[in-house]
Design brief:
2 copies of one chain form a homodimer.
Chain A (H helix, E strand, L loop, with lengths): L14 H8 L3 H14 L2 E4 L3 E4 L8 E2 L6 H7 L4 E11 L3 H6 L8 E10 L2 E11 L17 H8 L5 E10 L2 H6 L7 E10 L5 E9 L6 E6 L7
Parallel strand pairs in A: 3-10
Antiparallel strand pairs in A: 1-2, 4-5, 5-6, 6-9, 7-8, 8-9
Helix pairs in contact in A: 1-2
Chain A binds a DNA duplex (19 and 19 nucleotides) through α2.
DNA sequence: AAGTGGTCTAGACCACACT
DNA sequence: GTGTGGTCTAGACCACTTA
């Protein structure tokens, strides 16, 4: 009903009346509205009512959510493709080893890919997966591209959440070639650790984004009286 | 009880037993646990139990939350101070005007400040406030520093939420002087629009952070089976 | 099979905003 | 004062995991 703009930017019916209208209890209505409120679509005002916030519908890429690279590129109206850049089995980079809690002896698979939008390179991504997680034989082609399916099929692992550090960075010579941009131009660098539902780190990624193509936004709610 | 590590990284008592233990109903317990689960402190497993995730307690600065600059600096163990850089009343910059939905005739207050940690400049911030919001007389000194109190005291406005765009950028000559860093070095740029609870934009900010001093992290939950 | 979290109900009282 | 959202209760059934 909100999507059909039956209320526009205006006020929603009250909780009791919505409950009656939809034939459910007020608790159920509240649960749904709380979810929409947390995502920012609804704004609730104690004593006054609940209002639609069309604002946030315009946000393209929300940082709090994890997207498939290919979907992200499609969503911005481009065709997506992947170019595989390298695959290694051996001692991982120190940052990756630390994040994945690997010892000096442990090995890992390191795979790197470039994602293109309409044949323009826009994301460079390096993924590191601990070798001991791999349970089944696999073809190296399975690591040419998105790796989450590999984790599920060959490691019986599923990423439940990420902790992502967002950093600004500048393209060095290598990155400028990979992403076809000028050396020194600014890039998003996301350093991401993926955890399974047992809180074990199962994948480490470094992702470089060309900022001209992606706009990352966050809805930040105020908690105290803050300054800025 | 979680903070006192009564459960460590382990499993919490079940919902019914916690409810009995604390003398409340199960619904109340669930509501509390849902909040902690959304913030990432708890991980819930259907049919299995609820587990503590000490991981996220280590995150210093969470991007989803809005912090006072001064508090942020204190939290990282430094002493904070502010240097005022400029104050203007007049036509705002085009981006600001657009974000604040101002017409060609409308005026705005533009104030800029540098925040220091142990006397090292670490944040440069430009705030734009529509002039028509100002309801009371004020001293220009009130705009030397955090502006949220100004919004409350002189505009009777309170920011309810922000939409922040995160961008990588490089220091130009001006920024490199303001932040005492090399020209061309990478900086966080946050472009932030603050809204009141009526969804009206009331403040526009551009914030530049020296990335050596701040580490912004986000907990991103998986929704579908995604790729990366 | 037993125990866990996930969902829902029907009712109550409170805090707050409007008029 | 009336109506709104915020909180809480006591109970029920379902879906899932684990042993």
């Amino acid at each position: 009903m909100i999507q059909e703009k039956q209320f526009g930017e205006g006020r929603l019916p009250s909780e009791p009346s919505l409950a009656k209208l939809l034939g459910v209890s007020r608790g159920t209505i509240r649960q749904a509205m709380e979810q929409l409120s947390k995502s920012g679509l609804l704004v609730r005002k104690h004593g006054a009512g609940t209002y639609v916030n069309q604002q946030v519908l315009n946000i393209q890429t929300r940082l709090e959510e994890v997207y498939d690279f290919v979907e992200m590129i499609h969503a911005s109206g481009h065709s997506a493709s992947v170019v595989h850049k390298g695959l290694e089995l051996g001692a991982p980079e120190t940052n990756a080893a630390k994040a994945l809690r690997l010892g000096a002896e442990d090995e890992a698979i390191t795979t790197s890919n470039v994602f293109l939008a309409d044949n323009v390179p826009v994301i460079y991504c390096v993924d590191v997966i601990p070798a001991h997680l791999v349970k089944h034989a696999y073809l190296s082609e399975e690591l040419h591209g998105p790796v989450y399916t590999f984790l599920e099929n060959r490691c019986a692992q599923r990423v439940s959440y990420n902790i992502t550090e967002v950093r600004p960075t500048a393209a060095d010579k290598n990155l400028s070639q990979l992403l076809a941009c000028l050396a020194g131009s600014s890039l998003h660098l996301f350093i991401e650790i993926g955890f399974n539902s047992d809180n074990q780190p199962i994948i480490f990624s470094e992702e470089y984004y060309r900022p001209e193509f992606f706009s990352f936004k966050v809805v930040r709610k105020m908690i105290p009286s803050s300054s800025g």
